[in-house]
Amino acid sequence: MPVNSTKNDLSHREWEKGWHTTEIIAIASAISGLFHDLGKANDLFQDKLNPEIKGKRFEPYRHEWVSLRLFQAFVGGSSDQEWLKQLANIDEDLETQILQKIVVDNAGSSDFNNPFDTLPAFAN
């Protein structure tokens, strides 16, 4: 009976040495989840979850897109260090500033800007 085996080195030591980055990955995942859920914080999305509402309401923008745009507005032109520090010290004033920035930046604009073009390395 043949034995399954290989002479190839399958240890993947070249990329398994990243165990020390697991905390960074966990933090980045938490930040992603936080902003992802912010896009669900609107009446149109919440109505979709309510079984008592007959005929689901139309959402002009998917919550993922809303989340990304909120994140883009939060980061603004900041470096990764700056927006992470702001996130650690968020308060109601900063929240209001972000929402006002979204309104001002998008008022009357039909120009599309790709959020990924403006975000710093870690945010991207």
Would you summarize the structure shown here?
With 124 residues, the protein is mostly helical. It is 56% helix and 0% strand.
Would you kindly provide a written description of the structure presented here, covering whatever features stand out?
The protein starts with 12 loop residues before the first helix and ends in a 6-residue tail after the last helix. The protein has 124 residues and is mainly α. It is built from 7 helices and no strands. The mean pLDDT is 78. Helix 2 packs across helix 4 and helix 4 (63-75) crosses helix 6 (92-106).
Question: What would the principal axes of the Cα set say about the shape?
Answer: extended
Low-confidence stretches: none
What portion of the residues fall into strands of 2 or more residues?
under 5%
Largest sheet properties: none
Rg, Å, rounded:
21 Å
List keywords for this structure.
124 residues; mainly alpha; 56% helix
What is the secondary structure topology, with strand pairs?
Blueprint: H1 13-16, H2 22-38, H3 43-49, H4 63-75, H5 80-88, H6 92-106, H7 115-118
